[in-house]
Amino acid sequence: MSPKAISFALFAVVAMLGAPESVVPRVQQARSPSVVAQLAAAPVALTHVAPATKSVASAPATKSVATVGSKVATVVTSSASKLPTVTTPAKIVHGPTSWTLLNQAIARIPNHRSGVATWFVTNRYGHWGATDLANGDIYISPNIPASKVYAVASHEYAHARTLYNYGWNLRAANVALNAWFGGGDVAARERSADCMAIAEGATWTNYTSCQNEHWRQGARILLAGKRLP
Fold first, then answer.
1. CB–CB of 95/106 below 8 Å?
2. Where are the alpha helices (DSSP H) in 98-223?
């Protein structure tokens, strides 16, 4: 795909493991129709295709289901007694998005700074995470398994943090990252983002486990808000 066609870069992180959570938050409208059309037409770097959503059998008529955070509590009631349905309100954690679990993940990122990224919950792109490298807009799918939300969020934030350090100059960032991490522009960006995510406590990554100490040093520099020497 020709770089001349890139109005801005959009990179995605996806994986094959797990099915979507049984409790899915409301998906908010991320962009205006005209901007979304531009994003859909932009080049996307893919890793794995997201797994298809598995069908879930509905609960028996004798049970009511109450949502508790990211868990589902089943309350058995008697049809004969006609007892009222018992529900427990979900615990709400306030944050920048409509999804409590993602808000918790964002709050855990040690080097998270306001003004670096804008977060959106959407499954529009069919991938677990995507970052607009022109402005730091981050799109997170509500279909991520709970165990992977922090890893995906911290990886995508690493992309935004890096480009923020370079004044959203993708060309300058590519040169610096490729010189430090190697592998070409795309590989260097993904290696750096994985290493940064690991440095911030992520236990799952898709591109590298970052055993290279030189790469780890680079990740620490970028997370400190500095450019690579």
1. yes
2. 100-108, 149-165, 170-181, 185-199, 213-223
Residue-number span of the structural domain to which 153 is assigned? 7-53+61-223
Q: By the 8 A CB rule, do 166 and 159 touch? A: no
The total of structural domains in the chain comes to 1
pLDDT of 1-18, one tens digit each? 443 333 334 443 333 333
φ, ψ for residue 131, nearest 5 deg: -130, 130
**Does the pTM exceed 0.70?**
no
Distance CA(23)–CA(99), nearest Å, equals 10
Q: What six digits make up the tokens of 64?
A: 């009511």
What are 41's two structure tokens?
Answer: 């037409």
Q: What is the identity of the amino acid at 103?
A: N
- What confidence tens digit (pLDDT) does each residue in 88-114 have? 555 565 689 999 999 999 999 998 998
d(CA 121, CA 106): 12
The beta strand positions in the chain, using DSSP E, are 10-13, 44-45, 63-68, 71-76, 118-121, 129-132, 137-140
User: Is 2 a member of any domain?
Assistant: no
Q: Which two tokens stand for residue 5?
A: 């066609």
Q: What is the residue whose two structure tokens read 């094959």?
A: 16
**At 40, which helix (H) or strand (E)?**
helix 33-41
Q: Do the domain assignments include residue 1? A: no
Beta bridge partners of 140: 121, 129
